[in-house]
Amino acid sequence: MQVVSGTGLKSCSRTQQPESRHICGHNRSTSVAVRAQQQQPAAQEEHIPYRRETLLSAGLAALLVPLQAQAQDGLEQFQDAEDNFAISVPSGWSRAKGAPAGKQNKFAVPSARRNLLWYPEGDPSLSTNVTVTITGVGPDYTSLGSFGTAEQFGDNLVASMDRSYQLRAPAFGARPAGSVQEAQLLAAKETNKMYYVEYTFKKPEEEKRHLVSLIALGNNGRLNRLYTLTAQSFESQFSQQKETFAAILKTFKPPGRRV
Questions:
Q1: Contact (Cβ atoms closer than 8 angstroms) between residue 33 and residue 98
Q2: Which residues contact 47 (CB under 8 A, 6 or more apart)?
Q3: What CATH number is associated with residue 150?
Q4: For the chain, how many structural domains are there in total?
Q5: What mean pLDDT comes out for the span 85-113?
Q6: Fewer CB within 10 Å, N- or C-terminus of the chain?
Q7: What's the sign of the alpha-carbon dihedral 107, 110, 113, 119?
Q8: Are the C-beta atoms of residues 110 and 60 closer than 8 Å to each other?
């Protein structure tokens, strides 16, 4: 998750929460989303690399609308009007939204790809964060099975990021441990018509990260969409965040699929 991307964002903004101070302006909000994207494994942005040609890129379109009601256990619920999903995050977490940077094809479908981010307020490192990435998919994707089983999906996701084979292959010469990017699949299963994938990811000279993702296929009322929710933290912090992440994932409600 991986929600994660090595590319920057060309736009980003923070939506002020009700009865809370506005933390920063547009520039810092852009910086926050860019840093979160840069922290995450680059392959997350292309989390289906073997069918990458089906995924479209375009700018961010809609606002994230907070619901009036408060969720239980200190979670606040948000419903996204553009892509019709709902999620609850801890009260007091900040949120940002952005679109991938880079030259956009003039024929690209508007809002074909979106990235939304939540993180604990007061954590400038963004070491802990939750992202939702929504990607356009073709009409031939009628179910998650179009991507293979949950196990196949997880294997392909991790394989697209893992470079540990370079430590073992003579063709690459002798490389010391920790000198290449490494990823390891911990779990992959289907649950509630979604795929659950848990894995670790480590870049050279950086602390290992622990990620959990839910992947769902749905229709926002106009387009088929692939929804990827990813919660992540440093491995050293994961035990402290595990229950919070589980509570957040439990609240995730993507739209239904239209046949």
A1: yes
A2: 1, 2, 3, 133, 157, 160, 215, 228
A3: 3.40.1000.10
A4: 1
A5: 69
A6: C
A7: positive
A8: no
* Residue 162: closest CA among 49, 242, 239: 49
pLDDT of residue 210: 98
Position 90: which residue type?
P
What is the rounded CA–CA span in Å between residue 156 and residue 171? 23
Is residue 151, in this structure, part of any structural domain at all?
yes
User: Which residues constitute the domain of residue 143?
Assistant: 9-16+23-251
The neighbour count for residue 206, using CB atoms within 10 Å, is: 12
In which residue are the tokens 């229950």 written? Answer: 243
- Read off the pTM: 0.70
Looking at residue 42, its amino acid is: A
Q: Is residue 256 part of a domain?
A: no
User: Rounded mean pLDDT of 211-238?
Assistant: 95
Q: Would you say 233 and 130 are in contact if contact means Cβ atoms under 8 Å apart?
A: no
